[in-house]
UniProtKB/TrEMBL annotation:
This protein's pathway: Cofactor metabolism; pyridoxal 5'-phosphate salvage; pyridoxal 5'-phosphate from pyridoxamine 5'-phosphate: step 1/1; Cofactor metabolism; pyridoxal 5'-phosphate salvage; pyridoxal 5'-phosphate from pyridoxine 5'-phosphate: step 1/1
Domain Pyridoxamine 5'-phosphate oxidase N-terminal: 36-160
Protein name as catalogued: Pyridoxine/pyridoxamine 5'-phosphate oxidase
Catalytic activity: pyridoxamine 5'-phosphate + O2 + H2O = pyridoxal 5'-phosphate + H2O2 + NH4(+); pyridoxine 5'-phosphate + O2 = pyridoxal 5'-phosphate + H2O2
Enzyme's top EC category: oxidoreductase
EC number: 1.4.3.5
Functional note: Catalyzes the oxidation of either pyridoxine 5'-phosphate (PNP) or pyridoxamine 5'-phosphate (PMP) into pyridoxal 5'-phosphate (PLP).
Quaternary structure (record): Homodimer.
Residues forming coiled coils: none
Co-factor: note: Binds 1 FMN per subunit.
Taxonomy of the source species: Bacteria, Pseudomonadati, Pseudomonadota, Gammaproteobacteria, Alteromonadales
Cofactor: FMN
Binding site for substrate: 9-12, 67, 124, 128, 132, 192-194
Amino acid sequence: MLDKLADIRREYSRGGLDRKDLNDDPFVQFEAWLKEIIATGLPDPTAMTVATVDSAGQPSQRIVLLKDVSPKGFIFYTNLGSRKAAELKSNPRISLHFPWHLIERQVKVCGVVEPLSTLEVSKYFLSRPRESQLAAWASEQSRPVSTRQLLMSKFAEVKDKFAKGEVPLPSFWGGYRVVPHEIEFWQGGEHRLHDRFVYRRQSDQSWTIERLMP
């Protein structure tokens, strides 16, 4: 089977994308596409790849969930001791990718991050399921752990510690707003002649739109 990898392909035929189909505001356009993918019932429609770069120039990617979007930017949360947080501290440049293959679309975002306020983080943290709150306390994200049993033991300790009352916001848990300067919308096309449009933010905060070759 693996010797046939080069032969695995499919045709993209759901329809094209033209300039007239796009809103002048990339956030309005993104929200329209996001609503469409959510309506399909696709599992984890808000999942996005987050790419960061370390001090040596080594890129790293992982999948997180988009938790809010507005004209201010795209929001996600994480452990501030994680690899991504460490890399963003030294280099705030970031890229997001939404792989909506079910509807033959992709969205790519390039920008920089700004940390969310404690109030914003606390409001979201308190809205999470209790088990997710406890997991945030139990996991030293990106740190080595010898066995899963050790992780579950730590989770049990935390669960016992906060058995009564609300689970407090950990000091090492936070969030970021990705402020984009570039957003690209990709629609699959027949014969690999895909439609790509990129929005670029200008110095006056307006956006230009340009079609790209596939």
